[in-house]
Amino acid sequence: METLTKNTSQEIQDTFPINGTDHVEFYVANAKQTALYYQHCFGFDLVAYKGPETGSMETVSYVLVQNKIRFIITSSVRNTHEIADHVHRHGDGVKVLALWVDDAKDAYNKAMAKGAESAFEPYTLNDEDGEVVLAGIKTYGDTVHTLVERKNYNGPFMPGFMAKTSPANGKAVGLQYIDHAVGNVELGKMNEWVKFYQDVLGFKLLITFDDKDISTKYTALMSKVVSNGNGYIKFPINEPAAGLKKSQIDEYLDFYNGAGVQHVAIATNDICTTVAELRNRGIEFLRVPDVYYEDVLDRVGTIQEDLEDLRKLNILIDRDEEGYLLQIFTKPLHDRPTLFFEIIQRRGAKSFGKGNFKALFEAIEREQAIRGTL
């Protein structure tokens, strides 16, 4: 499965060509239950599995797919495994942001030559369906970019996995592809990691937000967005900024015990239908006051959607020079207030909802106040 359509006419400016997101892997305490959660609540289909039944005596993984999105849900089956240590330290969260490349060994060698730190050296997995080549480089915190070469593989995911389905399959909610993935890093580390993506992977700096752009009465943060040459990979990097109270980034860093993936933004072609169905399945979203909608059209202009529908679903709107976007953010997906999802529909806009920052972060602060962490 190709997570994003490859654009062969696009001139690649990166250190090595990246065709898109291959998968996102979550390390969790209970993979079976978490996989069912993503199936029932977010509409993913189970397509492959690895565990003791396939000869994997230390770990279990469930491969979930919806359109061009591929999630891997992984747990250890022994408390001495490094995955158990990772979950104990960070809680459930994203471990791997995997990049789909043409040549994993070449990509790894080029990244290493430019100063990357190795997570693991290239190796090849084989079975009757072909081969997959994997290599890994480290990024912020304990997060890893796995480089995945799968041009010679036709199986359900990769060698070591067996095809597997579930009665919960077939109930998709319209999620299409990963739009971007956001990392939270420690104070003073944002520019360091932006430089990593620029120097090591050849990414370009797409946009910068300072504490004047992203602030409320109490808290602030700073953010820079880097993107690869074809625009399929976009990584905003956040760090805390000085404020009167503890920012959402500080709260994340405290509960996650370090830097990590704050949220994954997932695109839909019909946000109203997607969000209505997610709400019906029990997904909770951050909420902005109704007053937000009183003058929003004065700011964003004409839109195709009915404003009353957006108000009822509490979907936010913003516009840039290219068009407008619609977005909404879930509450944290786990007991720790760390990882959450953004649901986004782009109507031409290439930006990230700057006009919604104040309303969004005030909504986050209200949740922090309830938790007693503001």
Q: Which terms would index this structure?
A:
nine-stranded mixed beta sheet; eight-stranded mixed beta sheet; disordered N terminus; 9 helices; 2,3-Dihydroxybiphenyl 1,2-Dioxygenase, domain 1; 374 residues
How would you describe the overall organization of this protein?
It contains 9 helices and 17 strands. The strands form 2 sheets. Strands 6-7-8-5-1-4-3-2-9 form a 9-stranded mixed beta sheet. Helix content is 23%, strand content 34%. The termini are far apart. The protein is of the alpha+beta class. The chain has helices at 31-42, 82-90, 104-113, 190-199, 248-256, 271-280, 296-300, 307-313, 357-371, and strands spanning 18-27, 45-50, 59-66, 69-76, 93-101, 118-127, 130-138, 144-149, 162-163, 175-184, 204-209, 220-227, 234-241, 260-268, 316-320, 323-329, 340-347. It folds into 2 domains: 18-163, 2,3-Dihydroxybiphenyl 1,2-Dioxygenase, domain 1; 175-371, 2,3-Dihydroxybiphenyl 1,2-Dioxygenase, domain 1. Residues 1-12 have low confidence and may be disordered.
